[in-house]
């Protein structure tokens, strides 16, 4: 049973108004192989059956974007994980980027959500079989929805993200122009029947850029572990571009909360000076600040179904992309690498 959306949301005052994180050193970099990949980007991660499963974008100055899968049992060994490039599966070649992995329990099927110029998905019965992904299908076979097309103005339709409640599955996406969109379809119809999008949030381009995550924070009664009686609030993260010198612009995350996936959204830690994650509140384990940008990534999830539930804060982990501040290359040639943030303190 899903947590009821009729429950009262966790009040912002019971969440921290400020967050602090510790970053690991670089954990995952592009392999020195025949693919000539420049950067590993946009990771989506779950911990399932004692294995960390990661899906990410590969970026290359010559060949653009594609997808990669790898797994490991410990972050200490993540650097050695073999890469499986997903263009070897039925996902195929061509532009594919910014994946999200989720398990859709009603169908007992894994979904990989990604962008291919549209909002696309592939399915697989076994997350550990990277060759098993189906050929991509589009959420909008007719092309970019009119509202999004009208708002692009030199931007791009990017960074699709799906989360479901007890009634609907919601598709979030961005246009790189300061608008966050939301579409939805009934759980029983998913992945078909996505509505025309609406604007979920609107701000300036740099203050609401891309790479949204939405999670359900489940706060159970301290005397029970029954999540069907839990209070649920939704946490929204969006990557922004702030002041500072960093390749591609200095990245950080703002945050909001809501009682409903449909909003309205109330700011939580939502400035560059007080971000959800950013240079202002991240320290590095070895004292070496190898990146000033805290960019596109995902919470490490252990509850893997379509509700995207995470526990109350205190020890949250977030796999993110960062970059050497001195790196110089074209955008697709930038050497993004992956590392892990661990939240300090509790709620």
From TrEMBL:
Domain of life: Eukaryota
Top-level EC class: hydrolase
Residues in coiled coil: none
Keyword set includes Signal: yes
GO molecular function terms noted in the UniProt entry: alpha-L-arabinofuranosidase activity
The keyword Acetylation is annotated on this UniProt entry: no
Subcellular location: Secreted
Entry's EC annotation: 3.2.1.55
Keywords: Glycosidase, Hydrolase, Secreted, Signal
Alphabetized CDD domains for the sequence: GH62
Catalytic activity line of the entry: Hydrolysis of terminal non-reducing alpha-L-arabinofuranoside residues in alpha-L-arabinosides
Cellular component, GO annotation: extracellular region
Pfam families: Glyco_hydro_62
GO biological process, one term: xylan catabolic process
Function statement: Alpha-L-arabinofuranosidase involved in the hydrolysis of xylan, a major structural heterogeneous polysaccharide found in plant biomass representing the second most abundant polysaccharide in the biosphere, after cellulose.
Family: Belongs to the glycosyl hydrolase 62 family.
Name of the protein in its database record: Alpha-L-arabinofuranosidase
Organism listed in the record: Neocucurbitaria cava
